[in-house]
Specification:
Blueprint (H helix, E strand, L loop, with lengths): L1 E6 L4 E4 L19 H10 L8 E5 L4 E4 L3 E9 L3 E2 L2 E2 L6 E3 L4 E3 L6 E9 L33 E3 L3 E2 L4 H10 L16 E5 L8 H9 L2 E3 L7 E5 L14 E2 L4 E3 L7 E3 L6 E2 L3 E5 L4 H5 L6 E2 L1 E3 L2 H21 L1 H10 E2 L3
Parallel strand pairs: 13-22
Antiparallel strand pairs: 1-4, 1-11, 2-3, 3-10, 4-9, 5-8, 5-10, 6-7, 6-9, 12-23, 13-20, 14-15, 14-21, 15-18, 16-19, 17-18, 17-20
Length: 336
C-alpha cells in the first residue's frame, strides 16, 4: 500500500520539524522550511505527533495513490488537482486507489507546498527524525528527493467501503482556521537585533531596516543570499564559530547578507547582524528567488507574544479537529 511517483516535481522531499539534539555532533537539523504549513497539513489530515509531510517546491510531483487515503495540502498554492479536477487546500480530502494527485494547473503562489496523509508515510526515523538531509543523503525516503517510479509506503489506509460517505462527512466538518495560522503575505519580515548588531556600522544598520533586498538566485534550503546594499562592520574582526540557528542573518566579509534556513550548517563564524522572528520564518520560506524583501525591527517581548499566539492557535485547532480524528480512526486500517 503506497503512493507511486509518476513525476517527481522540481524538489520534493519528506520533512518533519527537524532533527533536534545533534548539532553538537555536526548533524544539521534540516526539517520543513515552512513549519507552520507542515504542522497545518498534518493537523488537517487528522495526524497527531510529527509525521513527515512531503515538501514540494514550485512544481509539485504527480503521484498515484495505490490505496485509498485521507490527505491534506497546505502552504503554497501549487495548482493541485485530483484526477484533473481542482482541489482546495486546508481541507481533509479522500483519494481512492488509482487517483492521480498533480500540480501545475495554475501558476504557483508561493514556493513550498506540503502534503500530509492520515497516518503518515512509512519512513524510517534517523536520529529521531524522518526529515531528509539532502546534502548528506540520509533520512526521509532513501535520503534523497523523490524520483520517477518511487513507491512510498503508507502507514495506514482507508477502508475501501463507504468512501463516499466518509468524503461527505469530512466535507461537513467545519474548523475555523485562526488568522495567526494563515499564510498571508507580509510587507516586512520582522527581526531582532543579532549578537553583533552594535558592531555593524550605523550605515549598515540603517540600510538593513530601510533598504529593499532581493532573494538571490543562489539561495536554497541551506541559506538565502540577499542582494542589496553592502553591510559592513565598523571595524574588521575575527570571531570564533558559534552554533547556527534557523533565521540567523550572517554577513561575510563581502557584505552580502545570508539568512540561514532549514538545512543550515551546524556552526558559523560570520558576524550575526540579526535574527528573523520565528513567527515570520514561514513567510520567508515562501519567498522566491528575485522577490523583494524588507525588514522591520521587533522587540523580544513582541516576538515571544506572537510566537505564543501561534502556539495557542495550534492547540485550539487541534481541539477543534477531534471529530475529524475520531471519524478517521473508524475508517482507517493498517496495511497488511
Amino acid at each position: 500500500m503506497s503512493v507511486t511517483v509518476i513525476k517527481p516535481g522540481m524538489l520534493s522531499s519528506f520533512q518533519d520539524r527537524g532533527r533536534g539534539g545533534f548539532q553538537h555532533e555536526g548533524i544539521p537539523a534540516a526539517g520543513a522550511m515552512d513549519e507552520r504549513a507542515h504542522r497545518l497539513a498534518n493537523a488537517l489530515a487528522g495526524n497527531t505527533g510529527d509525521p513527515a509531510t512531503l515538501e514540494m517546491t514550485l512544481i509539485g510531483p504527480t503521484l498515484r495513490f495505490d490505496a485509498p487515503a485521507c490527505f491534506a495540502l497546505s502552504g503554497a498554492d501549487l495548482g493541485a488537482t485530483l484526477n484533473g479536477q481542482d482541489i482546495p487546500a486546508h481541507r481533509p480530502l479522500v483519494a481512492r486507489a488509482g487517483d492521480i494527485l498533480a500540480s501545475g494547473a495554475r501558476p504557483a503562489t508561493g514556493v513550498r507546498g506540503y502534503l500530509a496523509v492520515h497516518g503518515g508515510f512509512a519512513l524510517a526515523a534517523v536520529m529521531g527524525s524522518e526529515s531528509t538531509y539532502l546534502r548528506s543523503g540520509f533520512g526521509g525516503f532513501q535520503g534523497r528527493a523523490l524520483a520517477k517510479g518511487d513507491q512510498v509506503p503508507l502507514r495506514a489506509v482507508l477502508d475501501s467501503h463507504g468512501l463516499d460517505a466518509l468524503q461527505s462527512a469530512l466535507w461537513d466538518i467545519r474548523a475555523y482556521l485562526p488568522g495567526t495560522l494563515g499564510g498571508q503575505r507580509r510587507g516586512a519580515i520582522r527581526f531582532l537585533a543579532g549578537m553583533h548588531w552594535d558592531e555593524f556600522s550605523a550605515a549598515a544598520r540603517q540600510a538593513f531596516t530601510d533598504a529593499e533586498f532581493r532573494v538571490s538566485p543562489q539561495s536554497d534550503r541551506m541559506g538565502y543570499r540577499l542582494q542589496g546594499p553592502a553591510l559592513s562592520l565598523s571595524q574588521p574582526r575575527q570571531m570564533l564559530s558559534e552554533a547556527a540557528s534557523f533565521g540567523t542573518v550572517q554577513v561575510p566579509a563581502g557584505g552580502e547578507a545570508i539568512i540561514l534556513m532549514a538545512d543550515r550548517q551546524t556552526t558559523g563564524g560570520y558576524p550575526k547582524l540579526a535574527q528573523i522572528a520565528t513567527v515570520d520564518l514561514p513567510a520567508l520560506a515562501q519567498s522566491a528567488p528575485g522577490q523583494s524583501l524588507r525588514f522591520q525591527a521587533i522587540t523580544l517581548e513582541d516576538a515571544q507574544r506572537l510566537d505564543g499566539e501561534r502556539e495557542r492557535a495550534f492547540v485550539q485547532l487541534h481541539e477543534a479537529l477531534e471529530p475529524l480524528r475520531a471519524l478517521l480512526a473508524l475508517a482507517t486500517r493498517k496495511p497488511q
